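Researcher: Here's a chain I'd like modeled. Treat it as a single chain, no partners, no ligands.
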Amino acid sequence: MSKKVIPVVLCGGSGTRLWPISRENMPKQFLNLTGEGSLLQNTVLRATDISKAKPEELVIVTLDSMKREVMRQLDELGPNYKSHILGEPVGRNTAGAIAFAAKYVLETFGADTVMWILPSDHHIGDEGALETAVNSALDAVEDGYLVTFGIEPTRAETGYGYIKVSDFLDDSDSVRQAAEFVEKPTADVAQSYLDDGNYLWNSGMFLFSTKTVLMNYRALATNIYDIVHKAMGEKTKTPSLEVYETLPEEPFDKAIMEKSEKVAVVPCNPDWSDIGGWESLWELCEKDPNGNVIEGKAAVYQSKDCIVHAQERLVACAGLENIVVAETGDSVLVADKRNGDAMKVLVKSLKKSGQPEVSIVPKETRPWGMFKVLSESKGYKIKEIVVKPGEKLSLQSHNHRCEFWVVIEGEALVTVDNEEKLLKEQESVFIPLHATHRLENPGTRPMKLVEVQCGDYLGEDDIIRYDAIYGRTEAA
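Model: Modeled as a single isolated chain. Structure tokens:
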């Protein structure tokens, strides 16, 4: 098959079972969990390498709120990876996201293309096995099948959905027909699936022609197709919120795969994990002789099969087994690493009670550097800001707060109402209410300062922006 393969990476989700290192504003796909690069970056490189697609042929579907971080991470890979970033105004699960991508691929690359759908937050240890699976699926795609990839199970896992497979397709010894999609089972049912030998883990990866999947949407999920078509208008990357939010929150499996008459499955074993929780992460990481995974400034004694993650403080554990301890500066988690369902309920309850630590990360990256909130209460907020050499923040002003800046390391070029001032270490400046101001690092090493905000409202929307970074305004 010689049709062009367009990799489509789905970059949404909140990764609540990996809280507190994964949060709504910085979910697991943006984190480096398994080695070099984030899960998103590794997925992008793997997708373009296996599909032989050019960087400028990559399509990313993400939320508008995540586009800035997606752009930043793709920039680290090279200049051409961010040509086709599609922003959903609101998340509506994978059926809407894939319909959005399919219409865009049709209009941008043509109907005579193949779409390879990939979650952005999965781990693949054996890329060669995945490439073999993709190549073996192409003939079935040519014959009009919607193809998914089933992972050969290694245990009676209750955290994954399953696919029951039946006969091999004609003239194929590697592609089988899908008999049934089943939800996450109980432990007894999962064991029966493992014993049966005809059930595979559902990987969430798909391969099909653009023309075929759109035909299936029109026939099987007409409502989703019509709403996405109306929301997008003519070849837009940013659909109408008013229209898009009327989409049903439905996964692609239920909307299309379970209803289609031509669904095929490629069984494969590419050392896959969705890193759906702390136990999955523990399985992937290097361990000490007692089975412990240690990250950061941590110490363990008479402990076994634990995962200890320390970011800012010493974490010491004694006499523990199968426990996760995760410290992130603003939060500490102590939990049974095997109980992902309890983690999901815990984080949901924290969110319901309004705990900001569920969503907001203590340290946020920006194209110009990073900042973290050191302390905040009514009327004030204290931040540590680090600006890379040669970088600058956007020109802005505030209607409800003034700011004090104290340089701790390096030097800062500060603009306040068109007047520039060079600050060195231990020097400070006051930014009055309504003053237009900018912060810049003219030096050759990172510049660090402490910012104290004072006012009756300290939200990020109290920023009037006067220029843009990466094609959009950038808040400090």
